[in-house]
């Protein structure tokens, strides 16, 4: 399959880079009384200190604008005063609804609707387009990447814009019923302006028919937790301070854009669980990756999980802060009301590519799925997908829950955890242990590496019961280009780099190739899963990276400054780019493994795939390249060729009971309908912007609709718009 790429010459480049959307991540249980300690590793100040900028002390007061709405601190609520929650819409969704980001509490992205079928999907037409109004400000660097999935309850869609405005829209006509203006400043937007979804909540204390009985809740890029009435969009006055909570409380030194909430906060047994992303690559002692619980009724604080303070689940007082630089969690979490757990995907500690300053506690929970007790904030179990991660393999996917029917007749509550590595882990969600039918094997990894006092882990975990979403190791024969000279340049680049397969350790004297790259494998779009058939549908990318560590002195020469110093300059372009890694001995040069002249990847296509896996049979049903070359080409110039070459993709899929999958995600800017039996593309439509979001489906008055946010994505190089595009079959004439 991959050899056909040489016949396609000048198809790919520029907009197919798909370069990283990640964040250095994980979580935590509470406040720290002293500045961060480096006692577990001695690194001379001469190696970590910059001569060009000053590292602010962690207890420096927060910069102006960090508490965007100037909100007072929130009080703590004893857990025994938490009201008893009532059943939520997402626990057992009505067939016509899509009441949560992943449709249901299990995040299956599976709908029982059957009106749109493989036989009639070719007749789909646009029913309406709704415009969110969020577009890049004139004269400003574009950071927009909406990533929004609407939710649908009753007759309405509820969604958020890329800049955290919230809207209620008539699900049949697209007419706006209300809009809540978040008044979010452009200066608060991290490298990606994204709001993946809002959360729908039914109160247990406010009677039906009263304001804020049903609520829409979102976390914002400027770190507020906001609750509005689902009926009219007005702030819920009894929640927090007039409807808002300051999520920067207890975080210590930070500046706007350093920390932001991009994923919907699940509500588990009445507890809103909030995580956040921390901007990648800035400094070792970045703001904390703490995960916190809040009362869904009052907005009051309940608990914190702060990795380096595992026994303290309270808020810090005004003179202290949560432990800094800990792994943060930016992916969508999944709750389990029956077990009282929330499953938290984590990443690595701040400073992605250097691990010597990490604590033992951080190393235990980085790049893992962690089950947190929603009444205490304490981890109940941890399953790690990468040991001592220095490749930015943070988990971007949302865990999916299902019941596994074993051969002996037993039913095991299970969890599917996709990863950027393309490894998919199947765990008992009560214990975090791999299911017997899906063993995990520790395989030798390149060790110890090349960085003084920072050896790599001797082994890494491999899931042997689920087919890998990936290709064999790269070889020089895989190098290609639009011409023989391009191919030669890539061969030279390959030979100059250090590469020994997956987990090639970071290098200082030469570049190293990271494959899979940090965009996956499977990233934040996650997977969809049919609980009736046991079929898993996944889209994934193959985008190697070309990285190198540089000394602090060299990083200064290259002006690799962290975001919180005056010398920092916002980066233009569509890649996440190089990393300062301030307060460590090394900065990092990070970029795609491509021909820098044509901006075409050096490895042969495909760069994007779709795969259907029968989990019960442990086999691939089919696998195909995904995404056409129509909007891709050298120097970012579209070829307009309708050849399915396989492009990078971000965003996810949905499955329906009629045997269809719908997915945007690819850089061809199309919505695709896929036959789940064969993988054949049955229908496409060109979107007004990039479809880097998860599609969803619903029904109103017997008519089924499919919706996708075509907001585009600046890191993927796809066109930006503010259009939510909704499709349906033609209405029958009466």
TrEMBL record:
InterPro entries: PQQ_b-propeller_rpt, PQQ_mDH, PQQ_rpt_dom, Quinoprotein_ADH-like_sf. CDD domains: PQQ_mGDH. Its cofactor is pyrroloquinoline quinone. Residues 24-39 have a biased composition (Low complexity). Residues 1-26 form the signal peptide. The keyword Signal applies. Residues 98-706 form the Pyrrolo-quinoline quinone repeat domain. Keywords: Oxidoreductase, Signal. This is Membrane-bound PQQ-dependent dehydrogenase, glucose/quinate/shikimate family.
């Amino acid at each position: 399959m991959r050899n056909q790429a040489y016949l396609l010459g000048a198809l790919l480049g520029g907009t197919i880079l798909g370069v990283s959307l990640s964040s250095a991540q994980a979580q935590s249980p509470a406040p720290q009384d002293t500045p961060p300690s480096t006692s577990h590793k001695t690194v001379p100040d001469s190696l970590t200190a910059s001569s060009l900028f000053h590292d602010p002390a962690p207890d420096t007061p927060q910069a102006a604008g960090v508490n965007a709405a100037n909100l007072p601190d929130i009080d703590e609520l004893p857990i025994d005063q938490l009201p008893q929650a009532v059943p939520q819409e997402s626990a057992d969704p009505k067939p016509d609804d899509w009441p949560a980001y992943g449709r249901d509490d299990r995040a299956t992205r599976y709908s029982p609707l059957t009106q749109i079928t493989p036989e009639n999907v070719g007749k789909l037409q646009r029913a309406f387009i709704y415009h969110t109004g969020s577009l890049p400000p004139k004269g400003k660097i574009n950071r927009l990447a909406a990533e929004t999935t609407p939710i649908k309850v009753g007759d309405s869609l509820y969604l958020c814009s890329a800049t955290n405005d919230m809207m209620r829209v008539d699900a049949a006509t697209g007419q706006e019923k209300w809009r809540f203006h978040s008044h979010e400043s452009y200066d608060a937007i991290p490298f990606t302006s994204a709001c993946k979804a809002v959360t729908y909540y039914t109160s247990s204390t406010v009677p039906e028919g009263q304001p804020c009985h049903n609520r829409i809740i979102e976390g914002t890029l400027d770190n507020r937790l906001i609750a509005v009435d689902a009926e009219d969009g007005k702030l819920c006055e009894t929640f927090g301070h007039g409807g808002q909570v300051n999520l920067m409380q207890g975080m210590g030194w930070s500046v706007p854009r350093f920390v932001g909430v991009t994923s919907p906060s699940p509500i588990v047994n009445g507890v809103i669980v909030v995580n956040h992303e921390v901007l990648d690559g800035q400094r070792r002692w970045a703001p904390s990756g703490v995960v916190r619980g809040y009362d869904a009724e009052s907005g009051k604080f309940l608990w914190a999980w702060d990795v380096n303070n595992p026994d303290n689940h309270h808020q810090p007082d005004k003179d202290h802060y949560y432990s800094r630089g800990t792994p943060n969690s930016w992916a969508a979490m999944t709750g389990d009301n029956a077990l009282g757990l929330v499953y938290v995907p984590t990443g690595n500690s701040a400073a992605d590519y250097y691990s010597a300053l990490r604590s033992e506690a951080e190393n235990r929970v980085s790049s893992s799925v962690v089950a947190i007790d929603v009444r205490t904030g304490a981890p109940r179990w941890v399953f790690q997908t990468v040991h001592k991660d220095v490749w930015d393999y943070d988990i971007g996917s949302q865990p999916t829950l299902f019941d596994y029917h074993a051969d002996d007749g037993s039913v095991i509550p299970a969890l599917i955890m996709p990863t950027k590595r393309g490894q998919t882990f199947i765990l008992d969600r009560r214990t975090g242990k791999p299911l017997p039918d899906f063993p995990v094997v520790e395989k030798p990894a390149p060790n110890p590496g090349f960085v003084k006092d920072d050896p790599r882990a001797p082994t890494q975990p491999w899931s042997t019961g689920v087919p890998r979403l990936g290709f064999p190791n790269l070889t020089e024969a895989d190098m290609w280009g639009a011409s023989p000279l391009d191919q030669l340049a890539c061969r030279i680049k390959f030979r100059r780099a250090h590469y020994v397969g997956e987990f090639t350790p970071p290098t200082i004297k030469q570049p190293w190739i990271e494959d899979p790259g940090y965009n996956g494998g499977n990233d934040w779009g996650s997977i969809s899963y049919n609980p009736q058939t046991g079929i898993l549908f996944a889209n994934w990318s193959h985008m190697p990276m070309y990285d190198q560590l540089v000394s602090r002195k060299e990083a200064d020469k290259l002006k690799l400054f962290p975001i919180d110093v005056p010398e920092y300059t916002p980066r233009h372009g569509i890649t996440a780019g190089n990393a300062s890694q301030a307060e460590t001995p090394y900065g990092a040069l990070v970029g795609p493994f491509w021909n820098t002249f044509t901006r075409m990847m050096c490895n042969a296509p495909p760069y994007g795939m779709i795969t259907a896996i029968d989990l019960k049979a442990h086999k691939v049903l089919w696998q195909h390249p995904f995404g056409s070359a129509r909007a891709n080409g050298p120097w970012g110039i579209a070829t307009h060729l309708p050849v399915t070459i396989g492009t990078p993709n971000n965003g996810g899929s949905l499955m329906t009971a009629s045997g269809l999958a719908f997915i945007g995600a690819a850089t061809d800017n199309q919505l695709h309908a896929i036959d789940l039996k064969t993988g054949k593309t049955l229908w496409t439509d060109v979107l007004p912007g990039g479809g880097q979001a998860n599609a969803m489906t619903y029904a109103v008055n017997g008519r089924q609709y499919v919706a996708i946010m075509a907001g585009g994505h600046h890191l993927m190089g796809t066109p930006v718009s503010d259009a939510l595009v909704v499709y349906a079959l033609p209405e029958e004439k009466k």
